Amino acid sequence: MPLTVLTDEDVNRILHSFTKDDILELQESLGDALHWYSTSEDGADCCSGFQPERTHLKRKDGSTTLFMPASGLTGQGVKVVNINATDESESASPGLPDLSRLSLDTQNSHGSSRSDLTTPQSATTTTTRSSISSIPASTNASVDSLATGQTSISSTADTSEAPKKPESSIRGSLTLLDNLGRTTGLINAEEVTAFRTALASTMLLKKRQSVHDVTVFGGGKQAYWHIRLALLLRGDEIHHLNIVTRSFDTARKCIMRLYDPLPNDPSYVNPLGEKYNSRAQKTILTPAHTEYQRLLKQYVRASNVIFCTTPSLTPLFPASYLINPEGRKKGRYIACIGSYKPHMVELDPEVLRYAVAPHHEHRHLHKRQKEGGAVIVDTVSGCLREAGEIIQAKLSPDQVVELGELLMLKREAEKQCAKGEKLEEGCNLQDDKGLKEWLTRGNVIFKCVGIGLMDVVVGNELVRMARARGIGTNIENF
Fold first, then answer.
1. How much is the pTM?
2. 363 lies in which domain range?
């Protein structure tokens, strides 16, 4: 049995070759594994009962090492990653203002704070793609016509720079073994971690009725892969893409990477295409903008999809943006994947409490808003123990449902719907019609802390493709 070793460059070559069909096929495989994880009996190797809990090791230098073992249907594996940060309290803060405690009476009719806001002096210029690096960091930049290499930038004259804080980095490796314990793969895990999380987060994106407006919090690897997969899966339908982050430069690099992810490979053909999603207006918003609060509220309210990818200690925006009468006019898909400890939180816990509250407690619900009565998670045990939003909202086990279980219910509903039968009541999802309505048009919240099984599934696929394409290093008889 050969051992396949994949460097970060090897992994990037494979991941960036994936087309829409490849992503859909991978999501099907991941969905099968998560289905077995959530619903199989204890006798199955990949059921939740066979998955060891991941271990945290806090190091003296402030970094955290995670050990994530997992058992799958066709093998096993363990991922070891180090989250490097000199000061966790700084690295875990997104640098975004804490607006979570704002109430309606502290905002004017436009959603801005009553504190004086200077009207920005705007200047609009048209530049080539390569000159985006010269844009001031304190901007709200609207990045248009990327496919043609032309960029329309609307920037403010505000020169107040958001405080720079050290970025946390995730480095490590994924070791794969077959059912006999023979090592089959050793993979650089830096890119795999971000990709497999986005792969899970966008599984529910495929069926959403509307994805016209997408807002992403963060500009790192997780944000990049969520954007890339969203564009691969639904790119023609996305009209606005808003990136909200503390660092304009990070967001700029994230967008530019969509164009040219492999600059050292002249033979590379980007599956996103030469004119990738030219209809979408791309906007970068940083806290340095003088009207940050007003624009943030505007973007969140307009969004059909929100991806939260920051290790935040405080909510990224007030709960009122979503749960007051104006915020309830549309259903949204919200994925929170950045926070991974009980004291971290991206989405205000009040939003989660509202989502799981009994329907009779929801007064004046907009007719287009649907509530599923549950928050979707990758792992119930992991989220109840580690997810700050779940913990701080004080949700009980019956108020969260695993993605694998939901997929099982959805598949069962589709089968029974084809037969004209009704799905049995369970998990607060009343019937096949109600389940479909919620998943396609309602308010769906997905919280992911990550499980090793996801890494094993994606890792095995990477090894298979690497061997088929002659990528990486093979060591015979390891």
1. 0.82
2. 3-88+137-475
